[in-house]
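Handout, section B. The chain below has 168 residues.
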Amino acid sequence: MKTLEQHSRIIPKYNKPYTYYFLCTVIPWAFWFLSGYLSHLDPFTKTLEWATGITGFLGLMAPVIISLAVIWPDKAMRADFLGRFFNFKSIKPEYIFLACFLMLSSILLAQAISLLFGYSAEQFAFSDSFSFTSSLFPVPCLVPADCRSRFRRARLAFIRHGHPHDAL
């Protein structure tokens, strides 16, 4: 565990938050708008399908790439990042439990409210096929990707703020 003195030496190195958050907002949205534009072109060919999928994926990966581009050149920042990212000892089990079951409980609560407002229980029946598609990635690949994305965001919040309360 790092001491307060070690934290106070590394914090000034993260000195461009506005630039970082601006880039992490503008670049993904630019890729996603491009992906949306490409998805509405006629005729929608296989090449456009690939271009749409790649630009959408680049939009998802842009914040990770930007973060690594900012952190990796500086040896102290790189060591701080790797030390925080791979330090699972400081995470308390109750926070892991909350991270896993908070979303599940909110979905179950939303379903219960839906039923209270008179909607049919048939809305929860399993369907024979997926109700959405993705150009490049098979649907079963998207669920683990979403879980990884949520874990990464929670982990980055933990890294930025230094305590698990902000990671949920």
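Note. The helical segments are 4-10, 17-39, 46-71, 75-85, 93-116, 139-161. Compare this with the example in section A.
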